[in-house]
Each structure stands twice: as C-alpha cells, then as structure tokens.
C-alpha cells in the first residue's frame, strides 16, 4: 500500500480542438468568438455599457471598440493569462481604477484611443503590464500624465498620445530607453527643452507636427542618435539653434514645413549625412546660406515649394545637384541668368517642373523651361528684359511722351547701376547694349558693343534736368 507521500500528480493535456470549443462555449453574450486555434473575442459595436463579467480563459485578443463602456473597475477583465491584445477604442471611459489591468500578465498591446472623457490617469494605472509593448492613448483629452506612470513598463516601445492637450512633452517618457516610436502630433506643446527627450537612446520615430512649438533648445535631440524620422512641421518655429540636429547621423526624413523660417542656415544639417527626404515647404524662406546642403550626400527629395524664394544660386545647390526630386513651385522666381543652370538641370533630368516666373515682366507667368536666355557676342548670358507697361490708356501724344520718358529713365538707371571697376566694363556693356536695342535707342548710342566711356556717363548726368523728349534729341544729335 502506497503512502500519502507517494501519490502522483496527474496533468491532463486538453487537445487543441477542445480548447477551441471552450473558447466558443464561454463567449460573452452579444460577442463573437473565433473557432480558430487562437481565441479572439469580438465585442465591438455590441452596445455594451460595462465590461462583460466573464471571458474565455484562453482568449488571446479582445476587441471592445465602439461601445459605451464608462468605468474600468478592479480586475475588470478577470484573470486572462494568454491575453496579448486588448482594444477599448471609441468608448466613454472616464475613470480607470489603478488595478483595472491586474490579471493580464501577457498583455503586449493596449488600445484606449478616442475616449474623450479620460482626463486623468493614476500613477499605477499600467503597473501590472510588465510586458506591454504598444500603448495607444490618442484623442483622450489628456492634459498631462504623471511623470512616473511608465516606470514599471520596461518593454514599452510604441506610445501613441496624439491629439490630446499636452502643453509640454510628457516627462514620463524620459529615460524610457526601449521606446522606439512616439506620436505626439496635434497637441499644444510649446517647446522642446534640452531634457525633454533625455535617455531615449533607441528612439527611431518622433512625431511632433501640428503643435505650437516655437523654441527648440540647443542639443535637444542629443540622446536620440538612432532617430530616423522626425516631424516638426506645422509649428511656430522661426529659427533653430546651431546644434539643434547635432548627432542625428541616422536621420532619414526631416519635416520642417509649415513653419515661419525665413532663411536656411549652413549649420543646421551638418551631421545629417544619411538624410534622404527634407521638407522645408510652406515657410517664408527667401535666403539659403551657401553650404546649407553641403553634407546632405544621401538626399533624394528636397521640398522648397511655397516659400519666398526668388533665386537659387548654383553655388548653394551644387552639392545636391543630382538629387532625385526637387519641389520648387509656388515661389516668386526671378527668371534671370542666375537660374539658367536650373533650367539646364530641368532639361537634362526632367525631375523638376512647374516653376512659373514672377519677374522680369517680359517672362512673368512663363515656366522657366520656356524662357529663352540670349547671349552677348562674347557668349555671356543676358537677362530677359523688363517691360515698361503703363497702368492707363493715354492719348497718342501722352503715350509717346510717357513711353519715351519711361524708356529713357530705365536706360539712365541701368547705366548708373553698372558703375564698377574697369574689369567689369565688358559685362556692363552687354547689359547696356541689350537694353538700348530693346528700347529702340541703339542708334543714339555710339559706343556700340565695344563699350562706353566715363564721358558718356557724364553726358547722361548733364541730361538729367532735361525732359525726356529733349534728351532724346540731344542723344540723336550726338
């Protein structure tokens, strides 16, 4: 006879088919449970006002989206050792008891987005969820969250907190070294402080677009050296500190569109050697410093559309001359010889289009591709001329007088602007010659292509008190 100490424990193994049957058998009312190997409980759109009292023990995922659940009480879901995914999106949850998620040791994904009545979270709300990887709190009307709310979530990698009411980046994310993705767009965040992103050594994706950010502290991203995607578009930024993006050598996409930037500094992008996409669109940029794009050797797409650019010097653009896509539309382009290189680039690579000219008036409204640049006898590019258009319809006599005076004034001003050292005389002459031909005064100037002398300029100074008609007579007499 065997003693009590010799009794053997018998472990019964339930076949998979019985486990599937058990999942369906214990399915909550008004819910649907899958008959597959993994037990999924579907209670979305079921008209529930509270959490069902019982779930299948084998449940691996539960969907409670789009109900009218208001309260998550202590151990709201019982004990579900296999549950990995829980979704509570689009409910009316207003209060979560600190122990609501006890009994869910395997949960890796928790979705609670679009619960507009959640305005407060207790420090210990998520404490039992040691294996949580993904947490979605988007559009929950949160104004803040406790600084230590994630301290017991060492596995957390993805945090969705967009479309709330945060005025600062939550201090709770500091030191979360496993976080890889943070979504904070469409909040009311006003600044990125030097320690806002402290300790986020594995962060790859940060979205801060559509906030109210007007200042970024120096080296604010210094701990985020694995960052690959950074969205700062649609904020109130007008400038950046010199070392704002220092250390972001793995950054692939940087979005700065929709801000108030007026210039692009050569110091901003020095470390961004792997950057592939740069958005600078929808700003007020009128000037780009030489060397601004110098280190962007991996750039394939540059967005400069919808700014105040009038020209794009080749010296500024040369390092990224062979990038794949360049967006330049909606700028007041001045289509003179400074953009001739761009036209050639457009013709050769066919990767840029829609660059309508704003000036000179002779080519206004014309696409840069269709502008013809004339050449001087020496082979220099000649700018398209500025037309003289009056804003009224004068009588024939008035028209003759006005047109003559306008042309002569234009000629005088262009001559006066061409003063320079003797080495520049030939270039000046080309502009002068082109101007006089268009204005119909070529016959009145004896210098021709060969150039003009200081005595000619003196002569024009002496003519200034005369009327335009008298000046023309004097010129013809000479």
TrEMBL record:
A Gene Ontology cellular component where this protein is annotated is: plasma membrane
- Which SUPFAM superfamilies does the UniProt entry name for this protein? L domain-like (SSF52058)
Query: Could you tell me which InterPro entries the record lists for this protein?
Result: Cys-rich_flank_reg_C, Leu-rich_rpt, Leu-rich_rpt_typical-subtyp, LRR_dom_sf, LRR_TM_domain-containing
Domain (LRRCT): give its ranges: 331-377
The keyword Repeat appears for this protein: yes
Protein keywords: Leucine-rich repeat, Repeat, Signal
Q: Which GO terms describe its biological process?
A: visual perception
One Pfam family named in its UniProt record: LRR_8
**What top-level branch of life does the organism fall under?**
Eukaryota
List, alphabetically, the PANTHER family matched.
Answer: ANTIGEN BSP, PUTATIVE-RELATED, CHAOPTIN-RELATED
What's the protein name? Nyctalopin
